[in-house]
Design brief:
The complex is a heterodimer of chains A (636) and B (144). Chain A is 63% helix and 13% strand. Chain A is of the alpha+beta class. Among the domains of chain A are: 1-159; 504-605, no CATH class. In chain A, 46% of the residues are buried. Classes of the chains: A alpha+beta (636), B alpha+beta (144).
Chain lengths: 636, 144
């Protein structure tokens, strides 16, 4: 049974390999033999991977320990959903998922009707070459269907810290984002090959690039939210190398989506769009594979097989060198002379592109510097979060400024004084609000006040530009997606700064029955209980929270002792209020009498997540409304 | 030299200069915010006392963990050759245990004393920080 399944799955992978070679024929010769259409062959590619993915799911659910992957990463007593998430909770399985999404995108694009036949053929061919590379990697270096002849009774389990519903969906969402940029990359290569990087190209690429960007944003946000409530360190972003690896493609992708908009509107910035498309996909590859192959050490690292890292590095090198070589050949041809005024919206978007790339460079240097010193001088070191805060803050201030200004500029030519005059009510009201709140909350740091002020203007001006208030009706304008995402970013920045300023933390050695205090909050420590659960033992503390005599809820932080593999985890207990989260983490009890509790007040966390959700929504709306908007613009 | 080439050259040079300045600022800033990692032997050899925050990694020596209430802990970190006494106030991570690898961040006070403001949490009990493995290998105390 096991051998048969392994045989079938491997055959399917080889089938996909073969069909990918067939699909890439359009790159080499133009004559057609129409045995099967492109979309039919793409469907075979997709189905072969889909079925082998289902086989892997089946193996995990039935706990077939004759497969190495299941043996190492699953356990028969694990709840069903975590058996399922175990499929991609390891290197080989996550690779298969990656490829599944890759062929899915390829299949969907082959069905789309937005592009010409020739354009579609070449794009699918480029995409298929990549599919070939990855499937070959899977078959040779990380085959998920390797079997063993031992009869293991049970598996080695999955790290309990990874047993979390959010972590079950975090990798697929993130991967959809990463892989989405592979399609943008293929589109760019096609555009360069056919010399067709123009308005038409931007219209084809736009929904895909916005969709990929939205998923990437959502994937990063889910990881961040997981770290916030699961790790219990009181933060949502740690500048950990793995987090940085996902932030870098996001930064260049954010620059890219704006370029695509400019290209669609003004038929300019062709070269820069191509560079960003290639860069984003390369960084996505780095994000997935260097993380997974163990070059960066972290929780996320599954495997440390140097062969895999080498394959990916060589693959990355081939992709980068061929695409930049092609770009160098073609950049003269695709570039149209741009005739825009310095005071047009292009300039604003270009400046913010530079600023995004500057942040990218800051993050890149901070992530790579420790690797370099370790390699060159054998000196281990880490880069403190202070580095990022100090380097990025001034860039963010400028960034916010141009984010407010650019949408106010027209695509042709604008008068700055006129804009200032039109915005006078917003400016004055925001200035007043900022002044009063700073006074009320004793805020004296100039940078913080400035960011709050700029964020407020951004929120109000973005919302008012996307909504049209006509007597009783509110009409959504065509740039509604942009306006909601920009307002979301303003809300996000507002929350980030306020959270950094007003977070509070205190550690207590507490006895049952004692009352603890942090700011105006009173924590009443009521009880401790021990319990035996399915696959772990738990110690739970019970506390109730009150403020000014009013009861706000109960905390039940928990420590879990898992036996398989032996691991201890803490479960944070959070009470969400509108303006601040209050949360409690407990320590492993060191003695009988007292227990260490860490109390946090994290203001504006809800607002922060709201901002992130708005950013994602804005992206999705733009992806969906693209066509309609383009038609409207064409009329205007 | 045609006009467009001239224009392009100027554009290129200006961006290069801005770019260069930006990189310089970033790298300067980077050097100020580096936290070095040492093993107990290295930290004694370097003897960098005072205000600079560093990381120290090694094994928690057996039977060295003492708590004196108020979440204050004393323990010793060893690399098999030297040992450093660490004082820490706060919550110890779940996987903190004697004879296991640990990384602390704080200030070295000379006389083999270290005041930690952070004990770094790792998620897997078999996980050993790579720096600790490296320093154990260097002193020959590493067992596969």
């Amino acid at each position: 049974m096991s051998l048969t399944l392994s045989y079938i799955a491997n055959s399917l992978l080889i089938l996909c390999l073969v069909t990918s070679i067939i699909q890439s024929r359009f790159l080499f010769k133009t004559q057609n033999y129409n045995l099967l259409s492109i979309s039919q062959i793409s469907a075979i590619q997709f189905l072969s991977i889909l079925v082998s993915f289902f086989i892997l799911i089946f193996l995990f659910i039935t706990s077939d320990f004759n497969f190495d992957l299941v043996y190492f990463h699953s356990h028969s007593e694990k709840p069903l959903i975590y058996k399922l998430s175990g499929v991609w909770g390891n290197h080989e399985g996550s690779m298969l998922l990656w490829i599944l999404i890759l062929v899915l995108f390829n299949f969907l694009f082959s069905l789309s009707k937005s592009s010409s036949k020739k354009f579609k053929e070449i794009t699918v061919a480029v995409q298929s070459l990549m599919i070939f590379g990855f499937v070959l990697f899977l078959l040779l270096l990380s085959n998920p269907f390797n079997t063993n002849n031992e009869n293991f009774n049970d598996g080695l389990g999955l790290n309990p810290i990874l047993q979390d519903p959010l972590l079950a969906i975090h990798p697929p969402i993130l991967y959809i984002g990463y892989v989405g940029f592979s399609l943008i990359f293929s589109l760019s290569i096609t555009g360069l090959l056919t010399n067709e990087v123009d308005k038409k190209w931007a219209t084809i690429a736009k929904p895909w690039v916005f969709a990929a960007w939205s998923f990437l944003t959502a994937g990063i946000a889910l990881g961040s939210y997981w770290a916030y409530y699961e790790l219990g360190w009181g933060g949502y972003w740690f500048w950990d190398p793995v987090e940085n690896a996902s932030l870098m493609p996001w930064l260049s992708a954010t620059a890219l989506i704006h370029c695509v908009v400019v290209l669609q509107r003004k038929n300019t910035m062709q070269s820069w769009t191509m560079v960003l498309a290639i860069l984003t996909f390369s960084l996505s590859l780095v994000g997935t594979f260097l993380v997974r192959s163990g070059v960066l050490n972290s929780v996320h690292t599954f495997a440390s097989d140097p062969g895999r890292g080498l394959y990916i590095l060589i693959f990355l090198f081939i992709i980068l060198s061929t695409s930049f070589f092609l770009f160098a050949l073609k950049s003269e041809k695709i570039n149209k002379p741009s005739l825009h005024n310095i005071s047009s919206r292009n300039t604003g978007i270009m400046v913010n592109n530079w600023l995004l790339i500057s942040i990218l460079i800051v993050v890149f240097l901070g992530t790579m510097y420790p690797l370099a010193t370790d390699l060159l001088y054998n000196q281990s070191l880490t880069v403190g979060p202070q580095y990022y805060a100090i380097s990025i803050t001034p860039i963010i201030v400028l960034f916010l400024f141009f984010m407010i200004l650019s949408p106010q500029l027209s695509w042709r030519e604008s008068k700055l004084l006129k804009i200032l005059y039109e915005m006078r009510y917003i400016l004055i009201s925001c200035l007043t609000i900022t002044f009063l709140t700073s006074l009320y909350y004793d805020l004296f740091n100039f940078t913080e006040i400035l960011i709050i002020f700029l964020s407020l203007i951004l929120i109000i001006s973005s919302l008012s530009s996307g909504l049209n208030f006509k007597s009783t009706k509110v009409i959504l304008k065509s740039n509604f997606g942009q306006s909601i995402a920009h307002a979301g970013f303003g809300i996000f920045m507002l929350a980030v700064v306020s959270n950094a300023v007003y977070s509070q933390e205190k550690i207590y050695d507490a006895k049952v029955g004692s009352k603890l205090q942090l700011e105006e909050y009173i924590f009443d420590f009521k009880n401790i209980e021990q319990e035996e659960k399915d696959n772990f033992n738990s110690i739970r503390a019970y506390l109730s929270l009150s403020k000014n005599g009013k009861n706000l809820g109960e905390f039940s932080p928990e420590i879990r002792f898992y036996s398989d593999p032996p691991t201890i985890t803490s479960e944070t207990s959070i009470i969400h209020q509108f303006f601040s989260d209050v949360y409690v983490v407990m320590n492993v009890p060191q003695n009988q009498e007292s227990i260490s509790l860490r109390l946090h007040i994290k203001p504006f966390m809800n607002i922060l997540w709201l901002g992130v959700i708005m950013i994602i929504l804005g992206g999705i709306i733009t992806a969906i409304l693209n066509r309609k908007k383009y038609e409207e613009n064409a009329i205007n | 030299m045609t006009d467009t080439v001239k224009k392009r050259l100027i554009k290129f040079l200006v961006s290069l200069i801005i770019f260069g300045i930006a990189i310089l600022i970033i790298v300067y800033n980077l050097r100020d915010n580096i936290v070095y990692f040492y093993s107990p032997s290295e930290i004694i050899e370097n003897n960098q006392t005072g205000s600079q925050i560093v990381r120290l990694g090694g094994l928690v020596e057996s039977e060295s963990v003492v708590s004196d209430g108020d979440s204050i802990f004393h323990f010793k970190i060893t690399d098999g050759q030297e040992q450093i006494s660490v004082k820490y106030q706060g919550i110890l991570p779940n996987l903190f245990a004697e004879e296991k690898g640990v990384v602390v961040e704080g200030i070295y006070m000379n006389d083999r004393r270290f005041i930690a403001n952070k004990v770094l949490a790792k998620h897997d009990e078999n996980y050993m920080p790579p720096e600790v493995i490296k320093s154990l290998k260097e002193t020959g105390k590493w067992q596969e």
